Amino acid sequence: RPAKTKPSDAEEGDAKRKSPPLQYCGVLEFSGPEDKVFMPRWMMRNLRVKEGQQIKLRSVPSGKIPKGTLCRLQPHTTAFIDLAGSMDLRDLLEHAFR
Q: Is the CA virtual torsion 60, 68, 4, 39 positive or negative?
């Protein structure tokens, strides 16, 4: 069962690759079984890991996580496009993410 995540202080990579992809996430709760991690399928696809595959995790202090350089957004409805057309897109997104 995939768990919801939020950006925070964990870094994940595929343990079998020499240069693993990186993914930063946070812990939603600590109620799962010990030595198990539940993550969303999209994150598993990004990391190229299969269900049940072992991965190596390590903690990264929040201040050490690099700032993002790219964010691709896809509206789920045309209402967003209509709203974005009526105001500055940057202002709209900055307000929505606060």
A: negative
